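#struct-help
A.M.: can someone run this one for me? Single chain, 339 residues.
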Amino acid sequence: MALTGSHGPAVEFCFVLIPRFNMLALTAVLEPLRVANYLSGRRLYGWQFLAPDGGAVTASNGMRLEARPLPRGPIRAHTVFVCGSWDCEHYDNGKLFSWLRRLDRAGVRLGTMDIASYVLARAGLLAGHRVAVLWYCIRAFREAHPDVVAEACLFADDGARITIAGGTAGLDAMIADVRARHGERLAHEVADHILHHPLRGPDDGQRSGRGGRRRIAHPAVRSAVALMEDRLEDPLTIPVIADRVGVSQRKLERLFEKHAGQPPVAHYRMLRLQHARVLLTNTNLPVREISVACGYSSLSHFAKAFARQFGKRPGESRIAWPDTEPAPVWLGLAEGVRE
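D.P.: on it. Structure tokens below:
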């Protein structure tokens, strides 16, 4: 039985765990709720873990959580989150899909974190909704689900759906929930308690690491990377990029070596091949179409470049995390091949 106080009954959340779910994304959602309870001295929030068949579910980091089976009858929950990550783009579970559709008809708010939005989309439950999608998946997600409004925001909440991009975005999403239900003071106290400042809004950008543009110190390199990211299918030459950002090709190459750690041609190639890998794992597009979408007119040239970069040919890379591999590998921009 839920404890009540001046704020009424506790808000109940259910977390449906998909194998290889992201533990950080789940913890980022849970901790602000736990701390809100702790600081208020009341059970403002409650939660439980579910799985299609119940039992222990293993996260991508190897940790396991015990979960109850999906209930057959009505569920007492304000929001049901689907928690998944690796290979959610191919996850197909008719029992879970039917259960989620039943909840939707009953008016239960549905949510996702990390790339579990693929699960709701495959269940036909995201059409027309604005959805937060991880930045490196967004082009592939739009290709696979053109009826969904996919955006590279931290989180999106339209009342019926709440989607969280993953990582630490759950901290901001749940602190926003605390603020909306229990006021600014408690929200900021929760943020202080978990050392999370500054607070971010739903539409703040996702990228701020070295691989992203924000942290690259030189404006010419930031502008060049933006041009590269906007022209993956029809790549610009490095001289043209240098001209457009207002520096010589030689200077641009020196700036990339200093600020990105690799030549511009290697950085550009890695962006295109990373996009290819996302399209391979997140869509059913033929390899030839993916080759063209990443700026390679020759399929054999694309296959050789891909194999050299990732150690596998494109056709062997349609599953992001094969069952035969103990852990996934997703090379970042710092691993660009030098020529």
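A.M.: thanks! The radius of gyration is 22 Å.
D.P.: also worth noting: Residues 230 and 236 are 10 Å apart (CA to CA).
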